[in-house]
């Protein structure tokens, strides 16, 4: 007959095994993509996730191990490293635990029969220091302390493993809140900007084309058309360079072809050339055309035509010209454009990015390119825009 203590030990071992099976189930399926960050901590984790994704792409590791897989591998290594112990019955019927070498405490080799599978959490001995059978109470207390200690170690190791083996982020988990891809490229790099453009839907075949192909219609008329677009570059005058005077005037026709482009000789002393934005340098305007001549030539071109541009009030102001409101098409003030980009005073750069998928004003501004961009935006909505203007003035005249 087997000792009473052995039956209790087996029951406890079974309970422990069942508890491990119940607690160590398969990891749940992949979580849904994270929602946009709301707190500073979440913004920090989003930044870290982006950095991890970029590192992953650099190393070429497209298939990272999940947390569950890496923690399982660590457990297997820990188990292999520990010496396995086997419970057996000796010739006297006493329960002893021998190591996998099957040697007893006295050193004599005896063939023992394994009664259970090797476990790293089993107690090393059931004997007390005198070599006699230990009583039930002392053995139970010792086993309980050892089990609690082992469980604590396993939890600590598992937590440590999970901290160091977090699952690598995917592109879908990276979140951008209307951040300009150019700013992302300057701060982080081209790879991050590429991800941002893809998430914002800005990567299209059209964006790969040159600006010239997008803004100018090939084999089109180079003369004046019913609608023309104008843009001016300005320089600063006055003590702090806060006041503006015209330095360059460019006009394009309905197909984006340049029909007029002249630098203007300053009428006052220039205190700020604003070169980083205007692209104007002293040598450009030093040999420029006289202001009165430019003013007269521009007025003749605009006469009776639809004038297209962006924030045209500023351009007309520096030229000291006026134009009928009925014939002005300002891309900054067109309501459908403002609604689409969700901005009350959108910049030309923003409109081109959102509506044309092109980048303009990336460095020094060019008045020809800005006029072409404004004309392209106008032609995009020409029919609707003209119909809206017609209805507006018809309603005013009927009243």
TrEMBL record:
<comment type="similarity">
    <text>Belongs to the REXO4 family.</text>
</comment>
<feature type="region of interest" description="Disordered">
    <location>
        <begin position="1"/>
        <end position="170"/>
    </location>
</feature>
<keyword id="KW-0539">Nucleus</keyword>
<feature type="compositionally biased region" description="Low complexity">
    <location>
        <begin position="86"/>
        <end position="96"/>
    </location>
</feature>
<dbReference type="GO" id="GO:0006364">
    <property type="term" value="P:rRNA processing"/>
</dbReference>
<dbReference type="GO" id="GO:0008408">
    <property type="term" value="F:3'-5' exonuclease activity"/>
</dbReference>
<feature type="compositionally biased region" description="Basic residues">
    <location>
        <begin position="11"/>
        <end position="21"/>
    </location>
</feature>
<feature type="compositionally biased region" description="Polar residues">
    <location>
        <begin position="121"/>
        <end position="132"/>
    </location>
</feature>
<dbReference type="GO" id="GO:0006308">
    <property type="term" value="P:DNA catabolic process"/>
</dbReference>
<keyword id="KW-0269">Exonuclease</keyword>
<keyword id="KW-0540">Nuclease</keyword>
<protein>
    <recommendedName>
        <fullName>RNA exonuclease 4</fullName>
    </recommendedName>
</protein>
<feature type="compositionally biased region" description="Basic and acidic residues">
    <location>
        <begin position="144"/>
        <end position="153"/>
    </location>
</feature>
<dbReference type="InterPro" id="IPR036397">
    <property type="entry name" value="RNaseH_sf"/>
</dbReference>
<dbReference type="InterPro" id="IPR013520">
    <property type="entry name" value="Ribonucl_H"/>
</dbReference>
<keyword id="KW-0378">Hydrolase</keyword>
<feature type="compositionally biased region" description="Polar residues">
    <location>
        <begin position="97"/>
        <end position="109"/>
    </location>
</feature>
<dbReference type="InterPro" id="IPR047021">
    <property type="entry name" value="REXO1/3/4-like"/>
</dbReference>
<dbReference type="InterPro" id="IPR012337">
    <property type="entry name" value="RNaseH-like_sf"/>
</dbReference>
<feature type="domain" description="Exonuclease">
    <location>
        <begin position="226"/>
        <end position="387"/>
    </location>
</feature>
<dbReference type="Pfam" id="PF00929">
    <property type="entry name" value="RNase_T"/>
</dbReference>
<dbReference type="InterPro" id="IPR037431">
    <property type="entry name" value="REX4_DEDDh_dom"/>
</dbReference>
<dbReference type="GO" id="GO:0003676">
    <property type="term" value="F:nucleic acid binding"/>
</dbReference>
<dbReference type="GO" id="GO:0005730">
    <property type="term" value="C:nucleolus"/>
</dbReference>
């Amino acid at each position: 007959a087997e000792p009473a203590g052995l039956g209790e030990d087996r029951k406890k071992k079974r309970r422990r095994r069942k508890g491990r099976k119940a607690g160590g189930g398969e990891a749940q399926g992949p979580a849904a993509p994270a929602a946009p960050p709301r707190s500073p901590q979440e913004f920090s984790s989003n930044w870290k996730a982006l950095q991890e994704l970029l590192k992953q792409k650099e190393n070429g590791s497209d298939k990272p191990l999940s947390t569950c897989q890496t923690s399982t591998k660590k457990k297997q290594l820990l188990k292999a490293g520990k010496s396995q112990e086997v419970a057996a019955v000796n010739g006297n019927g006493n329960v002893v635990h021998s190591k996998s070498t099957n040697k007893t405490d006295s050193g004599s080799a005896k063939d023992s029969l394994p009664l259970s599978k090797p476990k790293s959490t089993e107690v090393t001995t059931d004997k007390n220091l005198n070599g006699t059978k230990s009583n039930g109470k002392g053995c139970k207390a010792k086993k309980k302390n050892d089990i609690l200690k082992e469980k604590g170690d396993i939890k600590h190791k598992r937590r440590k493993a999970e901290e160091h083996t977090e699952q690598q982020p995917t592109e879908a988990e990276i979140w951008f809140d209307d951040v300009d891809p150019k700013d992302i490229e300057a701060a982080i790099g081209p790879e991050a900007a590429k991800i941002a453009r893809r998430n914002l839907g800005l990567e299209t075949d059209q964006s790969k084309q040159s600006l010239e192909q997008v803004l100018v219609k090939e084999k089109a008329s180079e003369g004046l058309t019913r609608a023309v677009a104008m843009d001016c570059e300005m320089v600063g005058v006055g003590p702090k360079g806060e006041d503006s005077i015209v330095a360059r005037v460019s006009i394009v026709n309905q197909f984006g072809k340049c029909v007029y482009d002249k630098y203007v000789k300053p009428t006052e002393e220039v205190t700020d050339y604003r070169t980083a934005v205007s692209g104007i340098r002293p040598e450009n305007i030093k040999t420029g055309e006289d202001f009165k001549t430019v003013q007269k030539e521009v007025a003749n071109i605009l006469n009776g035509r639809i004038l297209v541009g962006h924030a045209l009030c500023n351009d007309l102001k520096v030229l000291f010209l006026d134009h009928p409101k009925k014939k002005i098409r300002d891309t900054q003030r067109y309501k459908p454009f403002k609604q689409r980009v969700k901005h009350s005073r959108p910049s030309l750069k923003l409109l081109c990015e959102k509506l044309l998928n092109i980048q303009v004003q990336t460095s020094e501004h060019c008045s020809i390119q800005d006029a072409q961009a404004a004309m392209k935006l106008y032609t995009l909505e020409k029919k609707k825009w003209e119909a809206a203007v017609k209805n507006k003035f018809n309603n005013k005249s009927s009243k």
